[in-house]
Design a protein that fits this description.
301 residues, alpha/beta, Rossmann fold, five-stranded parallel beta sheet, 14 helices, 54% helix, globular
Length: 301
């Protein structure tokens, strides 16, 4: 039997071994993105489909790794959509009542993020959870339990994916990214809100170079050497326009921990509001300028 996907999940994994022997019909697995919750959900699913609990060697494990296991169903937000449509859940509901292909007859559904269910799709899923098919386990994964329909929450056994300590995250990152120094990895962890897998993805995609460019801009702004409209225009051209705002959010959170001043609270509030607006159809340049105005001209306490 394979162990936990990540070192800080060992305790959870030991507990899961007891659960998987007599699994519930549905689990609500909550955890922050970038902490390894996706990997944990997949390992849970594999352990339910493998006769040995996730050995990694059998035909079931090889099929799962290849994405061809006939008794595993993954449902996420379809490409080009903002939520999981009711049609997708109706198709899922048809699949769960079909006869399983494996000899033991167990089937597993991994649905994520559960918050992406709209009212119609959530109600369609609820009907299946209220009368679950035999030997079928749902793993509903998300990050914000308060955004999950209460009736769905009540039909699930709740599990919480562990968050690594800073020491555990840093030790793991040093193994994964030996070309980066400890100081760089600590800074990257701060900028990615303590999420080690997010750090790996961010650094592998040129995140440190973008951060250095961003840091130089912020220093120049603070010293009055650069115009905020020009900085906002530059940020508006980033591939992910939210990235410079999330960097500023992480930086301001650190400032708040070091010096609990109201100006950092106000700046964080403006950033969060801008991120929410940018998720819609807000004017990017205007939103970014509003944030930078608060950064440059926000009142000292």
């Amino acid at each position: 039997m394979s162990g936990a996907p990540l070192p800080w999940q060992q305790g959870f994994w030991q507990q899961w071994q007891a659960y998987r022997r007599q699994p519930a019909h549905a689990y609500l697995l909550m955890g922050e993105q970038g902490m390894g919750v996706d990997e944990l959900a997949q390992a849970m699913a594999r352990s339910l489909l493998c006769p040995a609990g996730g050995c990694g060697q059998c035909a079931a494990c090889h099929q799962f790794a290849a994405g061809t296991h006939a008794d595993f169903y993954q449902q996420t937000v379809p490409e080009g959509k903002r939520d999981i449509p009711v049609e997708a859940i109706r198709t899922l509901n048809e699949w769960v009542v079909e006869t399983a292909h494996a000899a033991d007859g167990h089937k597993v559904v991994w649905l994520h993020p559960v918050e992406a269910l709209n009212e119609a799709s959530a109600n369609a899923l609820l009907k299946t959870l209220e009368e679950p098919p035999p030997r079928t386990t749902f793993i509903l994964q998300g990050a914000h339990v308060g955004q999950v329909l209460p009736t769905i929450r009540s039909r699930c056994q709740h599990l919480h994916a562990p968050r690594p300590s800073q020491a555990a995250a840093l030790a793991w990152l040093q193994e994964q990214l030996p070309d980066y120094g400890a100081d760089q990895l600590q800074r990257a962890l701060m900028l990615q809100f303590g999420a080690p897998l997010a750090v790996v993805a961010w650094l592998n995609q040129g995140g440190w170079q973008r951060y250095e460019h961003w840091r130089q801009q912020m220093n120049a702004l603070a010293q009055g050497r650069q115009d905020l409209v020009q900085v906002a225009s530059d940020w508006a051209g980033w591939m992910d326009v939210t990235e410079p705002l999330r960097l500023l959010l992480a930086w301001s959170a650190q400032q708040l921990r070091q010096s609990p001043q109201l100006r950092w609270h106000r700046l964080q509030q403006v950033i969060v509001e801008a991120l929410a607006a940018l998720a819609g159809s807000a004017n990017k340049q205007l939103m970014l300028e509003q944030v930078l105005v608060e950064f440059v001209y926000g009142k000292q306490d």
